[in-house]
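Record passed on here:
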Amino acid sequence: MNVIPHQISQRLDQPLTTALRALAMDAVENAKSGHPGAPMGLAEVAAVLWRRHLRHNPANPMWPDRDRFVLSNGHASMLLYALLHLTGYDLPISELKSFRQLHSRTPGHPEFGVTPGVETTTGPLGQGFANAVGMAIAEKTLAAQFNREGHTIVDHRTFVIVGDGCLMEGISHEAASLAGRLGLGKLIVIYDDNGISIDGKVSEWFADDTPKRFEAYGWHVMREIDGHDPIAIDAALTKAIAESARPSLLCCKTVIGRGAPTKQGHHDTHGAPLGAEEVARVRVELNWPYAPFEVPAAVAAAWDARRQGAAIEADWKRRFERYQNAYPDRATEFTRRLHGELAADFATTADTFISACAAKNEALATRKASQNALTLFAKLLPELFGGSADLAHSNLTIHPLTRAVTRDPAGNALFYGVREFGMSAITNGIALHGGFIPYAATFLIFSDYARNAVRMSALMHQRIVYIFTHDSIGLGEDGPTHQPIEQLESLRLIPNLHVWRPCDAVETAVAWRSALERTNGPTALALSRQTLAHQPRTPAQIDAIRRGGYVLIEPQSPPEAVIIATGSEVQLACAAASELSSNGLPVRVVSMPCVELFEKQDAAWRSAVLPLNLPMVAIEAGATRGWWRYVGRSGAVVGMDRFGESAPAPNLFAHFGFTPQRVAEAVRSVIAAATVS
């Protein structure tokens, strides 16, 4: 077989693109499950991009200055797996044969951390696009912070393929609008315009003029590119790479399932195997007389990118060595940040800050306490980067060192506008890129807008801090549209997400420390609008906060019941315990700012804090369902399973029964019930 590695061919049966089509259809057929249409339709686009433009090294998928590639339409995962295998990543043919099987490195949708070379987990349409915007923001900002005249160590592009579904999703508007405003010239988006989705031809429900839409965002747009003409694709990519001031959208017309004689162009190829008969026809049509998963040696050699990738990385290493010699301190800082290591004196600084908060005895809204923590840690950790969805002055995410990247390219903050979902998915991209610890803020009620991106943060084990303020009916007059009820419990249902609801400045400081030290997942801080009382603690109690739940008040005589509380209701629990103790009923108060961390403690700690033989009452100004696991059938929960109302916060707390008297009565009731039983 004649294979000329660097020549661009327009033939449909060109062996390099046929290898992609064959591997995709064979893997889907073998799995009896998957999406062959998009990989077959994108073969020419992928071949030109990966062989002629993408700067990467298969032997080292994580080298810092590689180009990023995101497959936003993650259902086309076999395209990516075929590319990774052919170019030389550690993804042997046995893994392609195990496509969609348990514990394989080729899951149904690409998953970060599972497959070498996969930059982000995609599948929920549109989010990969937003992740790519975040990666481009990170690249541009990191370059401004570290590059120096004559020394460029951050200089790479982000390429992303999107489909019709990605652009139908509203998040694409949020992300694309912001990308245009930020002038992300190194972001290149390839639109797989095949006109087909699961239900058929998209023209029946998606008739947007997509090029005009992106031009309105301020993008550089190229229309009507023949997605099966490698010469046209190469020319378009070359122009996009030359464009430095605007992100680029390449609108590539493709045929879904290209090469399948009786099924190409039909929605049947979108999400189902072609079938044995059609696979056989494809082999004839494309002049591919090889067995399933067989790639001829000449084709494999032409695809292999390891030698070229090693040379590209070696060139970067030489440049970085020169940078290191010229700017040793900056080089050390760059390396620290890319490795995700905190500053050497972080622990000492955090300890001092937490002790100072305890000594100050200050009553604060926890959103204000959060701002104080952010102010301190921003001085120590220049990698802290984030912003708010048009609520910075309410979330209190602005601090003295805040510099928006729209005003200073080397800044540390971004005004996201009213784009909660886009903000959160972009934040995932910033975290995935590396070099930053990002945070994102909005009201807790609007975490619902962001929820799926928060879930993706947890799924991908990304270190991100979500700042969700106005955490209860305590926000007051804005009423039930803004008062969260079910949101706390809903967030706690997300695996690998730590949800902190601190009760004062000390717990808030510990929560921030925990979030920053955590390297295997995101943290959500649920913070109050209203001022909360300071709670006195011993040093041992302060140290115990990191365990997620601890004894805050222990009566002098053995307790007869336990009150569990979080956030603003801790002060209520303390008041109720004081009333009960004065009437001869000793009660323990447990503050549980982070349920997830409490659950990670050993059984001895959990049973010491919450003895099984004591009746319990839980208090939280939110949905009650999750608390029954602690109080049991004989316990009680003082909470809210209905929507709030519009009124000043004190009136609302009284109206909904969040008073010391009601809590005390609930405690008396559970003690009485336990005595009877």
Notes: Residues 1-6 have pLDDT under 50 and may be disordered. The CA atoms of residues 71 and 205 lie 23 Å apart. The chain is about 45% helix and 10% strand. The first strand starts at residue 68 and ends at 71.
